Amino acid sequence: MRPILLQGHERSLTQIKYGHSFWGLEFGDLLFSTAKDHVVCAWYSVNGERVGTYNGHVGALWTVDIDPTTTILATGGADNTIRLWDVRAGKQLKMWEFPTAVKRVEFSEDGTLLLAVTEQRMGHLGTVVVFPITVDVEAEQVDDPSFTITFRESKATVAAWGYLNKYIITGHEDGRVSQYDGKTGELIRDVQAHELDMQITDIDMAPDRTYFITCSKDKTAKILDVNELKVLKTYVTDTPLNTAALTPKKDFIILGGGQEARDVTTTSQRQGKFEARFYHKIFEDEIGRVKGHFGPLNTIAVHPRGVGYASGGEDGYVRVHHFDRQYFDFAYEVEKMKG
Amino acid sequence: MPDPASSRPNWADDEEFDDPSVLPPQQVINNPDGTKTVITYRFNDNGKKVKTTRKIRTTIVKEHVNPRVAERKEWAKFGAEKGHSRGPDLSTTSVGENITFRPSTNWKTTSKEDNAEESKLKDQLKDKKVTCRICRGDHFTARCPFKDTLPPLDDAAAPGAEESPAADGAGATGAIGGSGGGSYVAPHLRGKKGAGESMPGSGSYKDRDDLATLRVTNVSELAEEGDLRDMFERFGRVTRVFLAKDRDTGRAKGFAFISYVDRSDAARACERMDGFGFKHLILRVEFAKRS
């Protein structure tokens, strides 16, 4: 496969998102990327053409998400704001200000709720805030969150919605995974999923949002179920992980990482382990790697139809891959027998 | 009075000769097989004119997409891309090198072998320590306190040890003869069997009896292995027919090897078939030489 290189950013990538699936219609024709250079870019995933940029943020951007109808884009960054954008026109619709940086935003399955993770800094505790959203570019959005979850112990680094907005799942700096009620924000469950004091760096929900994958600096990725927070699968690697993604269509997962960005200059590219690693979701075996980046991988997003994936690295490039036949043909002997 | 014919450009004033700094325009030729040939000219870094000929086949793939996706395809650009035309912009989008990605169940084992060499070298170097060439101390030679006062140890020992390298050399070749040496040995130095012999492992291939093998040259391009087999089987049992073929065109390269079970059959065939006319060419048959 021949990757498409997107060079729209001048600094390291922080998050990539494909346009979501909506009521079972899987789109994925648009790709959104954020980097530390204050600009959000929108691309056509099929040919890598840049559709436009969303300008307005005045700090590094940490996160982006798109509502299921591809109408509203939410971004959050180190300028302590969440901004909503009109996807089509690139116009800013709304801005919420916070005392600290916004590390993660995510729309709920139906696009009517938005959660955001804010940083713990300068005496402010880390929080998760939830806003109701009206999915219409003309509509006036509310000013205040419907509720706030405050973390007294360890701050949350990532968060995601469970199925039917029933739960909010958070991943924490100390390796814990917690489950909160999606309506009230009460803590329901708490599990030490990853090693103690190893930060959880990414979370990715399965398409039906009944299970999710987390990855951590402890060099492992785990699949947990949303209801019980039971660890279903564990994938062991040899490098700190920054990102994990589940692939639709095939039972694979993609992990990305590499050693800490600050150590990159002291090691060679080969030792740096800057590859996207493919594991079999069920057998937990590594089945291949894809090279290409010059720095650690910060984010991986898989096309909602499972036909390709995009990875963003510390090197400032987005690489969009469209899978070959071999990828789809690959199956374990047992899997072949079943079919 | 100007003649209408003279206003036409003379063939001798072809653009080639007009001005060397002007590039000929791009040419597009539509080939009968549906492809396009595009010829473009440019100057390279050395100021030389470069002609690039590209053959392009356009394949149109039709895809049915959701109307919402189709509508998004038509969006006007915004932000930093405002006003730009449709299609990927080379400044932001480029195509990377081809990556072969083949998922496999034994991915781990295959990649481990790659690292084995590297780790071996590391192990070897692990115990290495810095030694001074002058006093054998635990420091670099340049830092040696006796640098200016003592000659290097190797120099001092050299006259006495002069014999030993030669002896070592002989020993080394001996060791290689027994195929125990680790380093590279040129093929003609390997083993005691002489030229052309290679490592014992591949013996089954190389030890094949060349005594009953004929080399046939001046074979027609259109020849097939079957034709040769039919012709040469008349003289005895043929164990192998090898016809060298071009990898790209699949046509014969013009020579072949025929192996017989019996050398006497081979000799007879050699005698009878040398000078035999085959597909408009006269075959030349001789015993294959060991190379």
UniProtKB/TrEMBL annotation, chain A:
One of its GO terms (biological process) is formation of cytoplasmic translation initiation complex. GO terms for cellular component: eukaryotic 43S preinitiation complex; eukaryotic 48S preinitiation complex; eukaryotic translation initiation factor 3 complex, eIF3m. One of its GO terms (molecular function) is RNA binding. Keywords: Cytoplasm, Initiation factor, Protein biosynthesis, Repeat, WD repeat. The keyword Transcription does not apply. Belongs to the WD repeat STRAP family. Belongs to the eIF-3 subunit I family. This is Eukaryotic translation initiation factor 3 subunit I. It comes from Tuber aestivum (summer truffle). The gene is TIF34.
TrEMBL record, chain B:
Keywords: Cytoplasm, Initiation factor, Protein biosynthesis, RNA-binding. Signal peptide: none annotated. Residues 212-290 form the RRM domain. GO terms for cellular component: eukaryotic 43S preinitiation complex; eukaryotic 48S preinitiation complex; eukaryotic translation initiation factor 3 complex. GO terms for biological process: formation of cytoplasmic translation initiation complex. GO terms for molecular function: RNA binding; translation initiation factor activity. It is found in: Cytoplasm. Residues 154-170 have a biased composition (Low complexity). Gene3D superfamilies: 3.30.70.330. InterPro entries: eIF3_g, eIF3g_N, eIF3G_RRM, Nucleotide-bd_a/b_plait_sf, RBD_domain_sf, RRM_dom. Residues 110-120 have a biased composition (Basic and acidic residues). Residues 1-34, 80-120, 154-174 are annotated as: Disordered. Pfam families: eIF3g, RRM_1. Residues 90-109 have a biased composition (Polar residues). RNA-binding component of the eukaryotic translation initiation factor 3 (eIF-3) complex, which is involved in protein synthesis of a specialized repertoire of mRNAs and, together with other initiation factors, stimulates binding of mRNA and methionyl-tRNAi to the 40S ribosome. The eIF-3 complex specifically targets and initiates translation of a subset of mRNAs involved in cell proliferation. This subunit can bind 18S rRNA. Component of the eukaryotic translation initiation factor 3 (eIF-3) complex. Belongs to the eIF-3 subunit G family. This is Eukaryotic translation initiation factor 3 subunit G. It comes from Tuber aestivum. The lineage of its organism: Eukaryota, Fungi, Dikarya, Ascomycota, Pezizomycotina.
